[in-house]
Design a protein that fits this description.
Blueprint lengths: L13 E2 L5 E4 L3 H10 L5 E4 L16 E2 L8 H11 L6 H20 L6 E2 L2 E2 L1 E2 L9 E2 L6 H14 L4 E4 L2 E9 L2 E9 L4 E6 L3 E3 L20 H9 L3 E2 L4 E9 L5 E3 L3 H4 L3 E3 L19 H14 L5 E4 L5 H7 L1 H9 L9 E10 L2 E3 L11 E3 L4 E2 L12 H20 L6 H18 L1 H4 L9 H15 L3 E2 L1 H15 L10 H22 L8 E2 L7 H4 L1 E6 L2 E6 L1
Parallel strand pairs: 1-12, 2-3, 2-13, 3-9, 13-21, 20-22, 23-24
Antiparallel strand pairs: 4-8, 5-6, 7-8, 10-11, 11-12, 14-20, 14-25, 15-16, 15-19, 17-18, 18-19, 25-26
Helix pairs in contact: 1-4, 1-10, 2-3, 3-10, 5-15, 13-14, 13-15, 14-15
């Protein structure tokens, strides 16, 4: 049985002052939510690393919105539904695509400099999109531009208290209501409680449970793991998206090569130089990501290779320099020329389609607990995320969360603060009574680096792009053995705490992937290679060791 807390609240060394809302994470979803709420409320932003260290920063391609005719929100809607392969929540998608243009206006208002062509915002196409609707900045540095503007604007707001280097361990819940978070100051290793009646999880993805991922090192699934321990519903977590074109540098680091490069005309070629996506899908290289990745695996197996080639040699050099300066620079560092050379690329884990189940306002099943961004399962992505919908989804549902919390907090006479503090005190009293079971803070440290490496290898080999019952069973045995080991808990060790969260997320993915006996979108089973709408056009929901199914 999974413990409720990574570290028992009985080890708390400091209880901070109450605040109206705590935001966990400092990417586009978290900061945009905090900025809006800070107009009238006291907000804390807790993040495990620096403010700018988020997945948002690494988003090269852009952000999707139907802002120019003949494109229209209905086209964006249809493309998103098609990519989701039967599992999208249609209302969630409609909210996403209809709100998108307003979000672009808000970004421009805080000074975001989108690229301009002939006096208008420049738009490009990516996989699965029927019209050019991807806005970009700095050519291929969209995420960097967005994150810089969000951080700068957020820091100008006095009612936001930023706490970088603070690792949120668990959500405190009393009688199904949020009372705050339990965290650790990474610099001092002090265990602290931050009381709040509203918590927004915007902690990003889970990429570090795989060997190859475009995610930053901080993406260890902390938000999903803590939400699951708190009692939230987790849904669609078997759908892990792999990006087709990732380049390995000379020093064996991964560098994402934006899908926008294919949107501007680049080709995918096999070991014989053949464009293998032609004839496989009407949009060839711009097919949805799951289709491209699946075909890449087939081609790499046929060629006995672990890569294919990305070819941009036919695109005018002047255009490449304007659109892809970062990619050109990175390739130059590796003695490659985008205009002259074929670039070796392979798939890598990129995005989690599922996560913490929310409603259309970003609310979970726990009162006062919200989620947005990659950690959330809003229903907008279904079985496969449409390219460049992620940044927009974080903005749109962060905005919905802001509206709901703002409405609640306007009723200052409802006694949120007193009730929240009372709940924290009750939890601390309960924790002290149970302290004998919690034991002492354990300083024993197993070889954590080896354990993490083992988990990454197992998840990559057995729960990666292709899966089957036997591989999932073997992965589950490893994860279940370690997740139930006492050495993981009540330990002030960042790596160990992250490993516990990684195991929790891995166990949820394995469980859902084992149950879904079909292939759909980003979930591909060798032993069930076909889509099965009759039995599996439904969501798998995991909650407190129980499984639920919800029909579309």
């Amino acid at each position: 049985m999974l413990p409720r807390y990574l570290i028992s609240p009985s080890f708390c060394q400091k209880v901070h002052k109450y605040c109206d809302c705590i935001v966990i994470g400092s990417g586009i979803a978290g900061l945009s939510t905090a900025m809006r709420l800070a107009k009238n409320n006291n907000i804390k932003v807790l993040t495990k690393s620096s403010l700018s260290d988020s997945t948002t920063w690494y988003a090269q391609g852009g952000i999707a919105a139907a802002i120019k005719k003949p494109d229209f929100w209905k086209n964006h809607y249809q493309d998103t539904i098609a990519a989701g392969q039967g599992l999208c929540d249609r209302k969630a998608v409609k909210i996403l695509v209809k709100t998108a243009p307003k979000m672009i206006e808000d970004l421009i208002e805080i000074g975001t400099n989108f690229d301009i062509s002939e006096g208008e915002i420049s738009l490009t196409t990516e996989g699965g999109h029927s019209y050019p609707r991807i806005l970009h900045a700095g050519g291929d540095a969209t995420g960097e531009e967005l994150e810089k503007k969000l951080v700068s604007h957020s820091k100008s707001l006095k009612q936001i208290n930023f706490l970088p280097e603070h690792f949120v361990l668990d959500i405190l819940v009393y009688k199904n209501k949020c009372t705050g978070v339990l965290g650790m100051d990474i610099n001092t290793n002090k265990i602290e409680i931050h009381p709040a009646s509203n918590i927004v999880i915007a902690s990003g993805g889970i990429g570090q449970i795989y060997n190859l991922s475009t995610n930053p090192p901080i993406s260890t699934g902390d938000g999903i793991a803590m939400a699951y321990r708190a009692g939230t519903s987790i849904t669609d977590i078997e759908f892990v998206q792999f990006h087709p074109t990732v380049f390995k540098t000379k020093d064996s680091k991964l560098f994402l090569i934006s899908e926008a490069l294919r949107g501007e005309g680049a080709y995918l070629r096999d070991c014989h130089g053949t464009r293998f996506m032609v004839g496989r899908h009407p949009r060839a290289e711009l097919a949805p990501r799951d289709i491209v990745v699946k075909e890449m695996i087939r081609v790499m197996d046929k060629c006995s290779s672990n890569y294919i080639y990305l070819d941009a040699t036919h695109i005018p050099e002047s255009h490449l320099k304007i659109r892809f300066p970062n990619i050109i620079s990175k390739l130059r560092e590796n003695s490659l020329n985008l205009k002259k050379d074929l670039i070796k690329v392979s798939p890598a884990e990129h995005y989690l389609n599922g996560g913490i189940k929310t409603d259309y306002k970003g609310k979970t099943n726990i009162e006062g607990l919200y989620c947005c961004g990659e950690a959330a399962a809003t229903g907008a992505h279904g079985a496969n995320r449409l390219a460049s919908n992620s940044l927009m989804e974080g903005l749109v549902y962060g905005w919905k969360i802001y509206k709901d919390i703002e409405k609640k907090l306007k009723q200052k006479n409802t006694g949120y603060e007193n009730k929240t503090i009372e709940g924290v005190n009750k939890l601390l009293d309960e924790a002290k009574i149970k302290k004998s079971k919690a034991g002492k803070i354990n300083d024993h440290k197993p070889d954590i680096k080896t354990l993490i490496s083992d988990l990454k290898n197992i998840m990559t080999g057995k729960v990666g792009i292709l899966r089957d019952a036997q591989s999932l069973k073997e992965a589950g045995e490893f994860v279940n053995f370690h997740i139930n080991s006492g050495y993981l808990y009540n330990k002030k060790d960042k790596n160990m705490l992250e490993f516990a969260n990684m195991l929790t997320v891995a166990s949820l993915i394995i469980k859902a992937a084992s149950l879904r006996e079909e292939s759909r979108g980003t979930h591909q089973r060798n032993d069930f290679p076909k889509k099965d709408n009759k039995n599996w056009e439904k969501h798998i929901i995991l909650k407190q060791n129980k499984v639920y199914f919800k029909d579309i």
